[in-house]
What does this fold into?
Amino acid sequence: MDAAAVAQGQGAWRIDAERLWSRLMAMARIGATPGGGVDRQALSAEEIASWHAMIDWALSAGLEPSTDAVGNLFIALPGADRKAPPVVAGSHLDSQPGGGRFDGVYGVLAALEVLATLSQRGVRPPQDIVCVAWMNEEGSRFAPGMMGSEAFAGVRSLAALRAVHDADGVAVGDALDALHAAFPALQRRPLGFPVAAYLEAHIEQGPVLEAQQCTIGVVTGIQGKKTFDIVIKGERGHAGTLAMADRRDALEAFTRIAAALYAEIGGHDEAVKFTIGRLQVEPNAPSVVPERVTMRIDLRHPDNAVLGHLGRRLAELCEVFAAPCSARVKALVDAPSNGFDPALQQAIAQAAQTIGVPHMPILSAAGHDARHMAPLCRSAMIFIPCRDGVSHAEHEWAEPSHVAAGANVLLNVLLPFAGIPEGGTP
It folds into this structure.
């Protein structure tokens, strides 16, 4: 095969684009919202329904489904050496409450489509190649997110995760037990096992690729993230009788703290991302001085030194501006920036060239399960554009041609792991 043919994508291995798109749209009907989005939260009835669909598709392709104690779903293309560390690819099936059709689920279905394509061609890889759907990446129902990959990587214990409750008081442990009860015959894997390499396809969740008219993002790494739960405690009082000077108003203290945080932390530099994403006021009554405010903060920066400094300064500002109330700052997530394997990045770029689509290096501004796999094994990510950079919203959208291109890149990156030499005959 000459270089010109390769550059035009001739002779490259291809997935079934229509099948992949059809399955994405079928999955979007599970937990569909009136605005065209998806509400399919972790360990919910909707996620259980999505597992039924995944397992049916897997079995129809001759693949082997399994799970583990933390509710990760695995689908394997069996290899010649079943004891060898597998190559793993995937993402997550859960969504935000008003999320879109592509976030997370695209990476899972792209990996499943690659395995189905290899299985149809009679490929038996040297080791298993496994599609994974990680449990609770989003963290919208149970916080923090990325529970499945964190447990797999040993970042958090299963016992600690099982003890977490959602806003309705449901424990992760009880929800996990219900998930496993729905699939009593499903094979169980150990929680955590050696992995040879990890790949994750995803929509960018930002505007860069679209603005650059680029189809494939070769992800260089993920910027660091810290999340905090902050509780401001004051004293309840009667709104009509308590003098302003005598009040310990938790909401007033919140306004001072928030203004200081937005000014100093949010205004530190152009790279910082600072968000107060959740706010709860108690007792939340119109004629009662608030006694308690709880807020959730999301802080991100690509430079770990800057991220650490801002995290420490955030706690100091809360203490300074809380008086006469008090503020308790609890760190929930401390995830430093990470890079991805250079050789896999090069393989992604080469695969994009092979199928004839433009590519560029890009840093992930959002967090992904690949963050926890990178310390365990060679890891990398593949981005495709999303319209206007929108994600975590009902109108999130990816073009069918981009969906197919990302999956075809994933396929061609995985071919050497499947025992198919570069440029092998389709």
